[in-house]
Amino acid sequence: xxxxxxxxxxxxxxxxxxxxxxxxxxxxxxxxxxxxxxxxxxxxxxxxxxxxxxxxxxxxx
Length: 61
Hints:
This protein is mainly alpha-helical. The chain has one domain. The chain has helices spanning 2-9, 14-34, 41-60. Helix 2 runs antiparallel to helix 3. The relative contact order is 0.17. The chain crosses the membrane at residues 6-29.
C-alpha cells in the first residue's frame, strides 16, 4: 500500500503500476503457498529467490 501511495504522490507512469500489479500477484501467490503446513526446507529458498525476482520487477517498473 505504501508503494502505491508513493506512486500516486510522485505521479509515476504506467510501467510502475504494471510492475506493482505483477509484484502483488507474486506476493499473494507466495502467501498462499506459505499457508500449507509441513513445507520442506527448500521451499523457503525458492521463495527467497522469487522475492529477488519480484524486487527486480519493481526496480524495472
